[in-house]
Design goal:
The chain is α/β, with parallel strands linked by helices. The protein has 11 helices and 11 strands. It has a 7-stranded mixed beta sheet with strand order 5-4-3-6-9-11-10, with helices on both faces. Strands 1-2 form a two-stranded antiparallel ribbon. Strand 4, helix 8 and strand 5 (160-164) form a beta-alpha-beta unit. The radius of gyration is 20 Å and the shape is elongated.
Length: 278
């Protein structure tokens, strides 16, 4: 009988057909941990726990078809927690963790009122709820995404009020907010053909793409609404496309936000913007 280390090695070797060696090995670790609860220490020790080889083979086939590992296992790590992920919502990204971290470092009021526009899996809203204990609201145009977010809030014990809401056509459902945050769609349609198949074929286009002729459409609309819904001194935070940082910053300053700053992610890319309502 194969031990778990051999199974890990064989799985990684198969995945090298579409991933480089290091990434294949990391994905193999994640697959065994999130599907079967087998930790890296178990693999290094060669211990074998319950493992369904048929289920593993099916998972590997999906990965070879370039389906993201998080959709295959059904979970993604975000800010130290496991979130349910399905194809109806984007997979949480490390740069979004950086956005959350920035907000948490700058939060001033106790029990803040926070709204997340375009919640997807709920990772931003739920994390801010659990870390601050404030009143947190989340909106999304997609009922499928809201269903995933609600499941995550329930499983993680977060109190978040969710709304089905189209930010492009409706006013925000809550006022007197201390923080307004969003990681909206920001990839121009023209960039679709340059993107990896594992993103374009599996993640929801509704949450990714914007028109080529108005790529900051969501930022403008959310910022406009923020002026009506944020308390004086409240803060607006965005995750952004690195190529549109100056456009977003200039728009926020034009309509009256103060101390607008662009922040870089760990890769040195302009990926976050923050500003205050004066």
């Amino acid at each position: 009988m194969k031990n778990v280390r051999q199974i890990w090695q064989e799985t990684a070797k198969q995945l090298e057909k579409v991933y480089d060696q290091r990434e294949a090995e990391n994905i193999s670790y994640l697959l065994l941990e999130d599907l079967f609860g087998i930790r890296k220490a178990d693999i290094l020790a060669g211990d074998l726990k319950g493992l369904d080889e048929k289920q593993l083979a099916q998972a590997v086939a999906r990965l070879l078809d370039q389906e993201p590992i998080q959709y295959v296992t059904g979970v993604a790590d975000f800010y130290g927690r496991k979130f349910l992920v399905q194809s109806g919502a984007l997979i949480p990204r490390p740069e979004t963790e950086e956005l959350v971290d920035m907000i948490l470092k700058e939060i001033k009021p106790e029990n803040p009122r926070i709204m997340d526009i375009g919640v997807g899996s709920g990772c931003i809203a739920i994390t801010l709820s659990l870390e601050t204990g404030g009143d947190v609201f989340g909106t999304d145009v997609s009922e499928e995404a809201l269903g995933i977010a609600r499941k995550n809030a329930d499983s993680l014990g977060a109190k978040v009020t969710f709304f089905q809401h189209d930010i492009l056509s409706k006013e925000l459902p809550e006022k007197e907010l201390d923080i307004l945050v969003s990681n909206p769609p920001y990839i121009p349609q023209r960039e679709r053909r340059q993107m990896n198949t594992n993103v374009t074929a599996h993640e929801p286009g509704l949450a990714l793409f914007v028109p080529d002729d108005d790529p900051i459409i969501f930022y403008k609309r959310i910022a406009d609404e923020g002026l009506k819904s944020l308390n004086k001194g409240g803060k607006l935070y965005f995750e952004i496309h690195e190529h549109f940082a100056s456009e977003v910053k200039n728009y926020l300053e034009q309509i009256g936000y103060s101390e607008v700053t662009v922040h870089q992610d760990m890769q040195g890319k302009d990926r976050m913007v923050g500003g205050g309502r004066g």
